[in-house]
Amino acid sequence: MRALPLALILSLAAAAAGAQPADLVLINGRVYTVDASRPWAEGLAITGDRIAAVGTTAEIRKRTGPTTRTIDLAGAFVSPGFNDAHVHMDATGALLAGVNLLDVHAEPLLVERIRGTASRLPKGSWIVRGDWGAYEQWGAGSAGAAAGAGTAAGPFTPDRRMIDAVSPDHPVFVSRFDRSMFLANSLALKLAGVTETTVAPPGGEIVKDASGRPTGVLKGAAAELVRKVIPPIGIDERLTQVRAVLREAREGGVTTMQDLSSAEQVLAYQELRRKGELTARINIRPQLYRAEDLATLGFSRGFGDDWLRLVGFKAWVDGIMGNSAALFFEPFFHNPRNRGSLRHVMFPEGQEGAAMTMTAKDHYTRFAPGNLERLIKVAARSGVPPHVHAIGDLGNRILLDVYERVQTEEGLLGKDHRWRVIHAQHVHPDDFARFGQLKLVAEVNPYHISDDMRWMEERIGNERARDAYAFRKLKDAGAVLIFGSDSPGTNAARYFLSPVYGLYAAVTRQTLKGEPREGWFPDQRLTIEEAFEAYTRGPAWASFEEDQKGTLTPGKLADLAVFDTDLVKVGKTSPADLLKAKVLYTIVGGKVVYEGRPAGR
Ligand SMILES: [Zn+2]
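Above: inputs. Below: predicted complex with zinc ion.
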């Protein structure tokens, strides 16, 4: 081997002595590293896209050179950039760039929002989704005491005539948040060819007025009449939507998003990356039914790079609570004939009926292996972890049973596989321990506590609610908890990605109004440090990226968030102040991608 050139030796020596100047240094801060070997520091130095040093202000000052940018934090709080483990980027972008009706359940606001959206979007473009009515039955911020109030008149039923005048040039096809009904304006009905004489398809309803004319409200299979004439969204529209999501991320201090979008969305991410506009890293999770194709193409765990990476395969066992489709052993209180339903990926195994006969003493593995199990095996062999949605206690039981059998058969029991249960929302008391035994990651959404306690006990009763969002029990059992916003969800009425809402919910288990005062099942609260862990180090680990990010440690990517408030301190003493905290800087790969202003300045 030839001797190293002198210049290289000198520069290596300078680097070793800490003399190499950094590109960016932050000093005089309260730096919370989430690194157990050094939890707190005063500053850090960044070279290129990496953290070069973490230390006292005096230590970090030594890293400055003539071209170094210095940010004096003046006591501001720094943490690793937030890693949102559960984002629907496509739906979030559609709401941000389109129309957001989550908090709408009366005519004036509906008209105002449609008018506003129509004035922003080019003539001819469709106004879709919206998701009206999410706060109609139970008001936002309510802890459930007033549940049922305001429903005497029945749900808000809109009519095309309310919005026709404000949307003459835009076809409108918006949905109620639970997809139980849709509203088309006259232009959309015309484009779809829906008239007085149109007959609704089986399982659908075209609502008509006294004179027999369609009101614009379509239910069930009738929605397809309009849906099928909506053109697929083009790349430019997609780019607009992703840009809107990236802006929300920057403004919230979010530096990684673990996405759940459809596959086409990846084209937009690549395009924005080529343009240098990607300001957050994105973890991609294609649907599990594609596992065979991807394995055939040679894709395995970790494919991609620090910006775009394949980290899992997404699937679903059951539905969601919002429309009472989460699968439970016992029926819902408000509908005793219903205990939820299974999602399509479970088929065509033909075991829907079988699963629906299970009691809390049963295990799904007494049935022959089905479709989900077959697909999880394919994923297991490719090394890409399954990330499977399970909400009800029976939904979770089925998934745990399937995971246990596949892990046993594939020799993965006790191994480092990082398989996930998405939501793990209602777990049967007998099943908590299995999260530890099967070494599972629980990908949970803390803000849903604040938002869902409005109606949770009314739907499933106090006894089952005890094991709802039971983060402490999951953690004690050995699950690795990771947090996501589940944006847009119903929370989009209030916020999209800002992680302070999730931190607040996890440490208080209260509504945004601070109810109930002692917290909803307060024994399940987490400490602020645990909540931080679940929003930074945990999700990085769960994506096999713990060497790259998740803590502020020299050598890792320089992804960080700076707030005007010490989130750890207020998380302990006055958690409501978490909600007032403002992001001052978001830094991704050493680049300042967002600069905010402190409150009141
Ligand atoms: Zn979700």
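The pocket of zinc ion is lined by residues 86, 88, 260, 486 (CB under 6 Å).
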